[in-house]
């Protein structure tokens, strides 16, 4: 970032941007329609790449998903746009998200030196912003980035100072509604030189006054009591009783010392005596302490008192001891350090959970992509390798390929539609490169094969060559068991192919037709005993046919014939191969078969996987016995669910319904960032985006004991305050800044599987209940939603304060709170149908209790750098 005498900085040199890039340099911008020389420049303080354009011309650095150069950009440079290999060393592709859509910016530098300067600078700025998004502990850097961003945008005159009018304009952008007199008082308090304008140090002091947190001061005061300071004893009680921390006393001591200050050390105050609306208004307005229940709660949410802290908050028991000469000064947390702790990773609202990866693959939910090759809708979308790169970088562990005969080699596209085509070879190369970038655990390629034998063989050859030793071609020596699937740990770094084995499918179809014909014929017989006898004969023949199929299957997998039960396959007539033997040999642990039913009379080998459309799956789920049969089947077998074909706009169902049935591969259109996408991303954030999450114990218990338990609860949430909510943006990604100030309110929703015919819905309905619904008039494809909204805070998007208690009822089966998702949405009053300002979503089981700052995201789940929601959370059981 820029530095000069009037704009001091203590930031590392990594933050600096060469002046030539700030002024701009000419690069070639390349698109499918044209290529032209354009002056690009970097605005470091605003965190943007700018260039002249009639549409966008802006790339927010925090919205960047990936920067591709060198071999990573070869597909675009050489294949898509036909540039020479030499051009690759000067080529950069930037993938970013804007207005809920993925965008790609392709630029070519005139020289290698210019390219190196641009690449190094953009990667540095991107790394800084990414670090700020993923780590709340960088307080100093975060504060400096914020100050510079708003200093630069406010200094319209470019004279390195801000007058009162410029400060007022900045406050409008920040959604701060200060009465003119009070804003002027703040300005004068910061104007130490009494010049009528603020230089950068004075601006920093003004910002400190502006960002004062009276609700944190009140909480700190409540915890300290008469001591006037927060010692370790008070901190430990707070963490144990209020935050429900599981850390030991010694572990809490380490956390405390990380933020503590010596009694002899001067401590800057978080508050200020300067007048402000926050200081003159009541610190904590009264809230509704009556929960939406007909009987008083057993463990009520601590009401926020006039001091802003729960009235039953444990206070200190003794005053600090005197510090005598020769003794070590006691340590304590100042108001400012306590505030730093509350927004830090040490007090994060959620944390990645440990994930046992040693269980059979059927015991895991697996992040799954549908129609991975598409980046648009299912009728006219563009097929590209980009979809695979995005899915894999989002930790999808199962991607889909629909493969057809091409002119020279297999191609991938959506059959019987107007979607474009992409080479299967290029897709395999992209998968090989990106498969294990975000997660080391196995990737499953779900293939629909529509090509002939010759190109099936070509497909196998290219996969074998491209994936090398990562491709699973035979059973693992380390997994001798044939009755269960291997674990993700055993398959780490491996790629598996799943498609229908047409050998097995043809034989099973023949067997089923034979059995069906016999049963139909005998059902009309007058003698029931004869009918039963004939059916027995047919079932015996069917058993023999199954033995024959098993023998053939074992032979293809290289299993010695001695294990096949002595069946002589040569004595049976041979069937013309319906598929390439080379392709069939790749089907080891993931063999596609047709669903023949899921009751106890139907048997499948552990490696056999069938797929169900959401409509078919809903029929099983809506039938009580069918639901149990599906759960029982998924305890030992993998099942894939996919969206029905009527979702032509690539919308998503809500996956929690199918997770609740134990289904592992719940496929979503990851290019569509709707509620289903957000729930899916939140689920796999639990394990640090590894793409595999161990299913709840209730779904793995063969005795179904946990699934018989039905409990009722309340999610009690106090929405306390928000910090610097984002402004609405236009289609180009620019903030919509006018004279109006936003009127925000918070909507809290619970997305719950529809797993009970009698959900917990108290009669006193202060909440909203949305029952399950279906897409296009079909069966229900969503869970239930319970929601509750606060009132709107007028004219304040910078530091609005609600202090409202919301009580949301929910029921739970088998203790599976990881399948219930809590979503916090920031909306504008009278604009409920507009795009929300920000969101936060997490599984209920991952949401920690107590006082937490929720990091807010946009609709693409990109984190807003400076926006948080301060809440108090607890879960209450209902007897």
Automatic annotation (TrEMBL):
Keywords: Hydrolase, Lipid degradation, Lipid metabolism, Transducer. The keyword Lipid metabolism applies. InterPro entries: C2_dom (IPR000008), C2_domain_sf (IPR035892), EF-hand-dom_pair (IPR011992), EF_hand_dom (IPR002048), PH-like_dom_sf (IPR011993), PI-PLC_fam (IPR001192), PLC-like_Pdiesterase_TIM-brl (IPR017946), Plc1_PH (IPR037755). It catalyses: a 1,2-diacyl-sn-glycero-3-phospho-(1D-myo-inositol-4,5-bisphosphate) + H2O = 1D-myo-inositol 1,4,5-trisphosphate + a 1,2-diacyl-sn-glycerol + H(+). The keyword Aminoacyl-tRNA synthetase does not apply. GO terms for biological process: lipid catabolic process; phosphatidylinositol-mediated signaling; release of sequestered calcium ion into cytosol. Residues 268-296 have a biased composition (Low complexity). It is an enzyme of class 3 (hydrolase). GO terms for molecular function: calcium ion binding; phosphatidylinositol-4,5-bisphosphate phospholipase C activity. Residues 583-700 form the PI-PLC Y-box domain. Residues 268-326 are annotated as: Disordered. Residues 696-858 form the C2 domain. Its EC number is 3.1.4.11. Residues 178-213 form the EF-hand domain. This is Phosphoinositide phospholipase C.
């Amino acid at each position: 970032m820029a530095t000069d005498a009037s704009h001091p900085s203590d930031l590392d040199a990594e933050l600096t941007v060469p002046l030539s890039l700030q002024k701009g340099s000419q690069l070639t911008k390349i698109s499918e329609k044209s290529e032209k020389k354009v002056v690009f420049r970097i605005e470091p303080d605003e965190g943007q790449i700018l260039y002249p354009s009639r549409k966008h011309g802006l790339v927010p650095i925090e919205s960047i998903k990936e920067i591709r150069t060198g071999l990573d950009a070869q597909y675009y440079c050489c294949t898509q746009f036909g540039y020479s290999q030499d051009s690759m060393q000067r080529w950069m592709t930037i993938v970013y998200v804007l207005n809920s859509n993925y965008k790609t910016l392709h630029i070519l530098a005139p020289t290698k030196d210019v390219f190196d300067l641009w690449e190094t600078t953009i990667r540095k700025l991107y790394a800084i912003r990414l670090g700020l998004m993923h780590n709340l502990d960088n307080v100093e850097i975060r504060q400096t980035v914020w100050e510079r961003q708003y200093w630069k945008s406010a200094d319209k005159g470019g004279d390195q100072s801000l007058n009162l009018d410029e400060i007022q304009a900045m406050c409008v952008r920040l959604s701060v509604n200060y009465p003119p007199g009070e804003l002027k008082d703040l300005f004068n308090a910061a104007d130490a030189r009494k010049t009528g304008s603020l230089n950068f140090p004075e601006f920093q002091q003004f910002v400190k006054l502006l960002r004062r947190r009276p609700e944190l001061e009140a909480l700190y005061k409540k915890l300290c009591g008469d001591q006037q300071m927060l010692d370790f004893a008070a901190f430990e009680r707070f963490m144990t009783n209020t935050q429900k921390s599981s850390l030991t006393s010694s572990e809490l001591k380490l956390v405390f010392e990380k933020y503590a200050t010596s009694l002899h050390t001067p401590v800057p105050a978080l508050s200020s005596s300067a007048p402000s609306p926050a200081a003159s208004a009541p610190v904590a307005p009264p809230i509704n302490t009556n929960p939406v229940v007909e009987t008083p709660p057993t463990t009520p949410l601590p009401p926020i008192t006039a001091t802003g802290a729960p009235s039953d908050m444990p206070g200190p028991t003794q005053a600090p001891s005197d510090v005598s000469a020769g003794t070590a000064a006691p340590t304590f947390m100042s108001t400012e350090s306590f505030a730093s702790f509350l927004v830090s990773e040490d007090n994060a609202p959620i944390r990645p959970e440990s994930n046992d990866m040693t269980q059979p693959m059927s015991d895991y939910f697996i992040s799954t992509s549908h129609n991975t090759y598409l980046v648009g809708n299912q009728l006219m979308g563009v097929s590209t390798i980009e979809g695979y790169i995005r899915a894999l970088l989002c930790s999808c562990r199962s991607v889909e390929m629909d493969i057809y005969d091409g002119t020279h080699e297999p191609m991938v596209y959506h059959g019987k539609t107007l979607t474009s085509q992409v080479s299967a070879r290029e897709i395999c190369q992209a998968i090989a490169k990106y498969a294990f970038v975000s997660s080391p655990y196995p990737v499953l390629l779900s293939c629909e094969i529509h090509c002939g034998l010759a190109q099936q063989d070509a497909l196998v050859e290219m996969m074998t060559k491209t994936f090398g030793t990562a491709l699973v071609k035979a059973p693992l020596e380390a997994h001798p068991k044939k009755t269960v699937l291997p674990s993700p740990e055993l398959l780490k770094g491996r790629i598996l192919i799943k498609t229908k084995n047409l050998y097995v499918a043809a034989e099973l179809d023949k067997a089923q037709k034979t059995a069906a014909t016999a049963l139909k014929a005998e059902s009309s017989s007058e003698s029931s005993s004869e009918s039963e006898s004939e059916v027995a004969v047919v079932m015996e023949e069917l058993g023999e046919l199954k033995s024959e199929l098993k023998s053939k299957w074992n032979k293809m997998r290289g299993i010695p014939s001695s294990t096949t039960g002595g069946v002589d396959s040569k004595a049976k007539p041979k069937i013309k191969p319906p598929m390439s033997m080379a392709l069939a040999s790749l089907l080891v642990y993931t063999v596609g078969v047709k669903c023949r039913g899921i009751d106890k009379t139907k048997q499948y080998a552990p490696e056999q996987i069938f797929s169900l459309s959401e409509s078919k799956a809903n029929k099983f789920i809506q039938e009580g016995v069918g639901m149990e049969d599906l759960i029982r089947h998924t305890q030992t077998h993998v099942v894939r669910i996919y969206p029905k074909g009527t979702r032509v706009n690539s919308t998503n169902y809500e996956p929690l319904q199918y997770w609740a049935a134990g289904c592992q591969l719940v496929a979503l259109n990851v290019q569509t960032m709707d509620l289903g996408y957000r729930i899916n991303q939140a689920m796999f954030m639990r394990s640090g985006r590894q793409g595999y999450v161990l299913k709840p114990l209730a779904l793995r218990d063969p005795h179904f004991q946990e699934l018989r338990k039905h409990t009722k609860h309340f999610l009690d949430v106090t929405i306390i305050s928000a910090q610097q909510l984002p402004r609405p943006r236009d289609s180009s990604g620019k903030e919509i800044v006018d004279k109006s100030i936003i009127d925000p309110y918070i909507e809290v929703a619970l997305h719950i599987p529809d797993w009970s015919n009698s959900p917990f819905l108290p009669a006193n309905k202060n909440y909203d209940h949305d029952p399950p619904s279906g897409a296009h008039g079909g069966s229900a494809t969503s869970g239930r939603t319970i929601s509750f909204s606060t009132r709107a805070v007028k004219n304040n998007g910078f530091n609005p304060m609600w202090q409202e208690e919301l009580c949301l009822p929910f029921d739970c089966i088998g203790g599976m709170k990881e399948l219930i998702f809590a979503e916090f949405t920031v909306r504008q009053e009278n604009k409920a149908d507009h795009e929300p300002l920000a969101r936060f979503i997490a599984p209920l089981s991952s949401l920690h209790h107590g006082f937490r700052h929720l990091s807010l995201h946009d609709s693409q789940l990109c984190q807003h750098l400076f926006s948080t929601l301060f809440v108090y959370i607890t879960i209450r059981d209902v007897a």
